[in-house]
Amino acid sequence: MNPPETPALDKAETLKAASDYLRGSIARELAAPTDHFSADASALLKFHGMYQQDDRDQRQSSAQGKTKVYSLMVRGRIPGGRLSASQYAVWDDIASQYANGSLRITTRQSFQLHGVLKSNVKPVIQAIHRALLSTVAACGDVARNVTQAPNPLGLFELSLLDGVAATLSDHFKPKTPAYAEIWLDDEKVAAVTAASEDASAQTPETQAEPLYGATYLPRKFKMAVTLAGNNTVDLYSNDLGFAATLRSDGRIDGYFVFVGGGQGMTHNKPETFPRLADCLGWIPEWDLIPVAEAVLTTQRDYGDRSNRRHARLKYLLHDRGVEWFRGEVEARSGVRFNGEIPLAPWQTPSYLGWRKRADGRWSLGCHTLSGRIVDRQSAPLKSTLRAIIDAYALDVQLTCDQDLILLGVEEADKPAIEARLAEAGLDLSSPAPLYDRALACVALPTCGLAITESERYLPTLLPVIQSALERHGLSQRAPVVRMTGCPNGCARPYSAELALVGRSPGVYAVFSGGNVEGTRLAELLSEGVRDADFPAYVDRLFALWRAQGEPAERLGDFIARYSIPAAREALAPPSLETSS
Ligand code: SRM
Ligand code: SF4
């Protein structure tokens, strides 16, 4: 009998292996007088925190003979979304000088710049580096930006997560000198000299990247840290999550460990699916790094390198089972998980508006729709925020809900800040509960994978939903709404109470049944609803919820209880559905 065939490696694997630890042809192409990088160099650029894109609004005219308008999206590595006032100023300056004039807060507490020209990318990276920040591994098949529960109240126990997020971020940062060589003009350091002093026992590969090796991970790997009970990070959507528990003196004594969450899927491909993370159990705090390493290396060694659609950790969990995975992590780390400790119920405490901090100062949680910080004629958000942050030297924390918290405002400065916002015509409070947690991914015009609008559509969509809520007297129970321009799930639609997911131009699949706490998956409610039909659709949905829901029952809980098939039947008269 012939041995089973080993599936061929995905071409991304060959590219990584041949890249000399993420160098590839990037430096050479950067020096060339062209406006864009080759496909291979672009694929490697992701590991350096940038994506080559083209403006898809301008693509329309390319049919009439114009070429693509290339630029780069640059994403920061900002553990826990924490920035000092001066670091914020650097991002703000770069956005004006080198990008499209806007900053974009991401769903993972980072900043993205759009529209950076190839010729400007090096000064951008250097400016970020001078601010003691980086873009390294903000994208690519590596451990990415570590997210962390925000700390608007300046609580001691939440502040302990600063160190946890920073430790994880540093520990799993790639060790290759390629980033420094290419962007920071460091002399080329031979890969073999880059790591351990005890080189004799190691192969060049393990010395250069002791954790990752030459081919890094099969796919992106996302980590989040929080306190048990606080799910402001959407822990269950991460590859690896740590929920800290506290001793009686308020210090961290251990963590619940969650693995295998992820949101991406592809329409009509049931073998791809969103998945909530599983809890492996509890570990003492000193086992954080050994366990994190064991999880990451298990994915490194067993993750599917033949099919990128099946390469995330969640598929390993799904295919091999949680028991196998727990056993593997225990064997690699020497740590045994404690399954006896009960998990506290999850909450998602709000950080919006003024809040008094433990040290007597204040924080201001600013609601920014889809995280886009830009100056519009009627609302100069970018320059006003900058002026306030500069004037009062305020630290900032970005959030996983694409918002921004100004930290450490003195009581005496509150009226002046309010006056400044009012003068600029800005109201950074959330207009209604519906807006508090609504998210939209970037989508058009920059995202190369977008099928529909998302960020640009949200300002039209939310008033439609709000007026339907008001008509049915449901405003105070406004659902968590999220939308994306394709099924990849960048705004985490599959854990929302109501989600629109781009399906074909102008048509959205509708999901519902997730919950406020982010611990339940939404299910497909409608294959495809045209944007023009959505007002009537949402009206029928809310009428059903009001008529059949329990008093005070939330939309997600109602849909999960009422059953998806029954809701589909009630909601989908064929004349209003598209045939998808
Ligand atoms: Fe994402 C790819 C934007 C959070 C799942 N994501 C992309 C790209 C880079 C498109 C591409 O590959 O060409 C998007 C760039 C758009 C642009 O023009 O800026 C993009 N993702 C974003 C951001 C900016 C959305 C936002 O509006 O804030 C978020 C950046 C986070 C960060 O700072 O690192 C972002 N992406 C997410 C999340 C949410 C999360 O992690 O909490 C997810 C779902 C969770 C997950 O990973 O499963 C997510 N993005 C994806 C996927 C699907 C991955 C999968 O396993 O199937 C892709 C496509 C891919 O990787 O092939 C993707
Ligand atoms: Fe792009 Fe799709 Fe992510 Fe939206 S969900 S940013 S359209 S990849």
List keywords for this structure.
580 residues, alpha+beta, 5-stranded antiparallel sheet, disordered C terminus, binds iron/sulfur cluster
Notes on the structure:
Helices cover 32% and strands 17% of the residues. It has 580 residues and is α+β, with helices and mostly antiparallel strands. The strands form four sheets. The chain has a five-stranded antiparallel beta sheet. The longest helix has 16 residues, at 156-171. The protein is globular. Residues 189-199 and 575-580 have low confidence and may be disordered.
What about the largest sheet?
Answer: 5 strands, antiparallel
State the distance separating the first and last CA atoms.
Answer: 45 Å
- Multimerization state: single chain
Q: How much strand content do the residues show?
A: 15-25%
Q: Total helix count?
A: 19
Please state the CA-atom Rg, rounded to the nearest Å: 24 Å
Unreliable stretches: 189-199, 575-580
